[in-house]
Write a structure and sequence with these properties.
By secondary structure, this protein is of the alpha/beta class. It is built from 8 helices and 5 strands, in the order E-H-H-E-H-H-E-H-H-H-E-H-E. The termini are far apart.
């Protein structure tokens, strides 16, 4: 199994100062956002799930940080993430994406630029070429593009909260004695 992280989730995993996205159901920042994403990564890691970071995501993150070389060095040796390149197979896949914007004469609105759409298409093409099952993103348009192309999209607000750390209970209670192992 392979999953893909968009910039929104990748930043939440790496940057303690990253702002959580807004939960559309509540209109408020996603509760315990960083904990959700970090628990997700830990869970995926334990399950030995491949976690792919497409090269457009790496580029978008590098633009925002100062110590680029340190980040690149860590990413290259990471045992958790692998980098998905935009190669010839991905370029061919991009040209065949099921994408309404590529099929018709839709004009771009003010919020959507051609470059943004191209980045999103590259991410989905890389995910498809690598056989990804899921894409973690908070971008509604990217999520729709992924779904149109057979990849499940998961938003931060849909990631379950991590369980409480203290799930062990002492069932004997304060006035009871624990049964001995001799019984």
């Amino acid at each position: 199994m392979m999953v893909v992280f968009d910039t929104s989730h990748f930043v939440l995993a790496l940057d303690d100062n990253a702002r959580p996205p807004t939960d559309p159901a509540t209109g408020k920042p996603v509760e315990r956002c960083k904990e959700r994403v970090r628990h997700l990564i830990a869970t995926l890691s334990k399950a030995r799930t491949s976690m792919l970071i497409p090269i457009p995501v790496v580029a978008e993150y590098l633009v925002k940080i100062r110590n680029k070389q340190e980040f690149v060095d860590k990413l290259v040796i990471s045992r958790y993430f692998e980098v998905g390149v935009f190669d010839l197979k991905a370029a061919i896949e991009l040209s065949m994406l099921v994408d309404p914007d590529l099929q018709g004469t839709k004009t771009l609105d003010d919020k959507t630029t051609k470059a943004k759409m191209t980045f999103d298409r590259q991410i989905v093409a890389i995910a498809k070429v690598r056989g990804a099952d899921r894409l973690y993103t908070d971008d509604q348009k990217l999520a729709a593009l992924a779904r149109n192309n057979g990849i499940a999209a998961v938003m931060t607000w849909d990631i379950p909260l991590p369980p409480p750390a203290d799930l062990e209970f002492d069932f004997s209670g304060p006035n009871e004695t624990k049964p001995s192992s001799d019984s």
